[in-house]
Amino acid sequence: MKKIITVIYTLSFVIGAVSAQSVYDGVKIADKDLNGTARFVGMGGAMGALGGDITTMGTNPAGIGIYRSNDVMTSFSYSAYGMESKYEGQKSTIDKNRWSFDNIGVVFATKIGNQTPLRYVNFGFNYKRSKSFYKNMSMSGMMGVVENPSNPGSPYYVSQTNSMALQATDAERYVWDNSRQHLDFDNANRIFSDPDAGWLGALGYRGGLTERDRIDNEPDLYVPFLPVEPSSVFNSREKGGIDQYDFNVSFNINDRVYLGLTIGAYDVDYDKYSGYDESYKRGEGYSLESYNNISGSGFDVKMGLILRPFEYSPFRIGFAVHTPTFYKLTYSTSAIVTNDYRDANTDELKRIIVDTYDYVGDMKRDYRLVTPWKYNVSLGYTVGTSLALGAEYEYEDYSTMKFKYSSNDGGGDMEFENAEVKNCLKGEHTFRIGAEYKVIPEFAFRLGYNYSSAVFRDEAVKYIPSNSLITDTDFSNKRSQSNYTLGIGYRGKMFYADLAYQLSTYKENFYPFYNEFELTQGEWTMVTPPATKVTNTRSQVLLTVGMRF
């Protein structure tokens, strides 16, 4: 069935800089994958209290304080990505495989002495791919018909063109209320650089998908051309990633207290192409293609502590706090509408193409993103030298994520986007458990599990303001994610090698767009097509080789 949400209306106009970012983009940047050394992955990442692995400098920095020798290593992986979508009985599948360079790091262990409280001061560096954006999506089917929320008893065709018309109408109302002037949608050389006009509405009108209804001394009203229920096809391709560079210093005090500090630097490169088509009868229809890129850099600080509370017990407890990651980002976008329509006089099939690049090139907007604080508690226990057990809990409240304007735009908070963050997002709970068993001192087997709860609320939608550059109207509400891991390892006197396998799986509800209606003053209804049920999987084989000396 269609998803219908009734909400209390909040101001959809963004006063100030042009809107160019969404909650969904923010979550992509803030989220991280389970990645690192094969040993770390093989144990499900549950090594915060155990330490002794280079990757722990990114989860609990005190873990590097466990080292008593130098370490240098590198990791490579092969991943197979799978996507299966189901929409109203129609099924689509996409598979993609790729190699990647995932990890390289070094630790220098400096012994201070056996008699002093401070036993070791260690330094470390680690690079890893903290997030991979590689993902393809496809769905198709009839968008459907619902009862018109604004006119009960009459049909309403669910279509992206309704969103185009509504955005143009909202932008027009805002300009009219503030200046008693009309937006100049007829001037293509101006409309795509007008800070009060949204691109979705401008493309709809310039592409002949909406028409204007003008009344004297009133703001213009825009309505869509929608002859019949549309048959739709959606495709998207995402690629890129976030590279993480960690610099660590850690301390070993009396072999019972370990302290660590990590400074993290991040490099972001995210590309997304999306194409949405609606087809009608007799060859009519249109396509909207969006090309988006987010690039930039950021930094954070991570602080960690590991305690061995009982002198003659191997039991350890760990604590870590990560500050928000402070990103400076640039959003770059362009879009193309292609409309095939029948001439009203000749019935000839004609085509309109509108490409924003022809008027403004790649439109760029700078902004800042502040991710949530992260809190981590971990437990570790060893049985002799043959068995190691780890468990972790991590919490990150995504509803506290902040969007801010760039310094060129005043540097203040983005009130609309931050209100949407609170409306759409919630806290994420992550649980990790792992075990390592050494059959003989040189060979070990590992198992792990990692669970992360959903960060999107059930009623979350990708709300696009009236002056937004955003034209990719699609959004997915990701549900919980599970990672199942196993691994093996070899340890020689100096050389070591580890192999891990990871299966990641999560489901999400996908929507190509939403439509919105005002029922009464201040009360709105949002209508989406039926949810496309999507299952995403990733199988990863990870190899790490290194030397301790």
From TrEMBL:
Signal peptide: 1-20
Record GO terms (molecular function): long-chain fatty acid transporting porin activity
GO CC list: cell outer membrane
Membrane topology of the entry: Multi-pass membrane protein
Subcellular location: Cell outer membrane
UniProt keyword 4Fe-4S present: no
Source domain of life: Bacteria
Keywords in alphabetical order: Cell outer membrane, Membrane, Receptor, Signal, Transmembrane, Transmembrane beta strand
Gene3D superfamilies per UniProt: Outer membrane protein transport protein (OMPP1/FadL/TodX) (2.40.160.60)
Family, as annotated: Belongs to the OmpP1/FadL family.
Name of the molecule in the record: TonB-dependent receptor
